[in-house]
Amino acid sequence: MLRSIVLGIGSYLPARMVTNDELAQTVDTSDEWIRERTGITRRYFAAEGETTSDLAVAAAMRAIEDAGIEPASIDLVLVATSTPDNTFPATATAVQRKLGLPVGVAFDIQAVCAGFAYALSVADAMLVTGRVRRALVIGAETFSRILDFGDRSTCVLFGDGAGAMILSAVEASGRVTDRGVLATALGADGRQYDHLYVDGGVSATRTVGVLRMNGREVFRHAVQRLSEAAIEVVAKAGLRLADVDYLIPHQANRRIIEAVGKRLDLSADHVVMTVDQHANTSAASIPLALDVAVKDGRISQGDLLVLNAMGGGFTWGATLLRW
Ligand code: UT7
After folding, report:
1. Nearest to 58 by CA among 205, 198, 164
2. By alpha-carbon position, which residue is closest to atom 8 of ligand 1?
3. Cα gap 80→96, rounded to integer Å
4. What 3-state DSSP class applies to 197?
C-alpha cells in the first residue's frame, strides 16, 4: 500500500513584529491582559503589498530545501487559507506560478483555522490513491487584513504567517509502525456558523469584511472538538493516546491548548506550544508550530504526532502522523 510521508517542512513569518505593548498604544488593551488570557506576546504583520501567496512561497521554498527535492516533481499544490490574494484564481495557482512549477493540480482549501488539517487529509487521499505523487501543502494567512482594530476582543489575537510541507507517496507495510500519515479525521457543524465569521464577502456584501467572534463559545467548543478529534484519529489507527509523542495543536490560545492537553492526559512536555511567539495564524499555525519543534530537535524520525485544529464554521480535524 501507499503512505504519504513528509519529506520536508518550512515556515515563514513576515519581518514586521508587533508586540502587545505596541498594540496597546492604539488599542484599549494591555500586555498583561493579553499574556494572561491568551499567552500571546507578539504577532507578525505582512508588509503593505506582501500577500498570502508571498508568505506561502517563502515557507514553501524552505520546505523544498528541507526536503531536498526538485520543485518540478511537485504535482499537487494545496493552500489552506481564508485570506486569499484574490477572490479567484486560487492562491495555490499564484504559488505554482511564483515557484515556477510545472502543470499539475492546484487549489485552495477554506476551512479557516482547521484548513491545514483539511488540506493534509485531502493531500493524503490523493497521494495514497495514486492520483498525485508529490504534494506541497501550505497553510498561509494574512489575517491582519481582516481584523477590526476597533474591536479589542479580536484584534489582539491574530497574526500573519505561513507553513509548508512536502509529502510524497511511498510503498509501505500498512502497519502503524510505518512512517507517514496513519489516519485523519475531519468534521464540521454549520449550525455554529455565527460564532466565528467575517461580516462581508463576495456574494453577501461585495466587500471583504472583518472578523467577528463570540470568544467564549468558540473557546468552549474548541476544547471539546480539539480533544475529540485527537481521540478519534488515534483510535482509528488502533493506537492509544499514551503512544503519542507530541501533540501539535492549533495555536489560538494557551489556555485552550492546556485544557486540551489535560483532557488527553498529555503532560506539557508532550504538547507543542508556540502561540506566544506568533499569535493565532489560522491555517498556518500547525505547520508553524511543527516546524519549530522539528528544527529545535524535539521531534525526531519515528515519533508519533497528533496534529489537531478547530476553526470557524465550525470546522475541526486531526492527523495522526509518524514522523
Ligand atoms: O482559532 C479559533 C479562533 N479563536 C479562538 O480560539 C479564540 C477562543 N476564545 C478565546 O481565546 C477567549 O475567549 C478570548 C481570549 C477571546 C477572551 O478571553 P476570556 O477570558 O473569554 O475573556 P472574556 O471575553 O470573558 O472577557 C473578559 C473581559 C471583558 O471585560 P468585562 O466585560 O469582564 O468587563 C472584556 O471586555 O476582558 C475584556 N477584554 C479585554 N480587556 C483588555 C476583552 N478583550 C480585551 C483586551 N484587552 N484585548
Report:
1. 164
2. 219
3. 14
4. strand
pLDDT of 124: 98
The grid coordinates of residue 1 equal 500500500
The predicted pLDDT at position 9 comes to 98
Separation CA 323–CA 306 (nearest Å): 10
Pocket of ligand 1 (CB under 6 A): 29, 33, 37-38, 113, 152-153, 156, 196, 215-216, 218-219, 222, 250, 252-253, 256, 280, 311
Domains and CATH numbers, the chain: 2-171 (3.40.47.10), 180-322 (3.40.47.10)
Distance 12 CA to ligand 1 centre (A): 28
- Identify whether 155 is a catalytic site residue: no
DSSP 130-177: TS-SEEEEEEEEEGGGG--TT-HHHHTTB-EEEEEEEEEEEE--SSTT
Query: CA nearest 180: which of 308, 59, 305, 9?
Result: 305
Q: Which residues of the chain have pLDDT under 70?
A: none
pLDDT tens for residues 55-102? 999 999 999 999 999 999 999 999 999 999 999 999 999 999 999 999
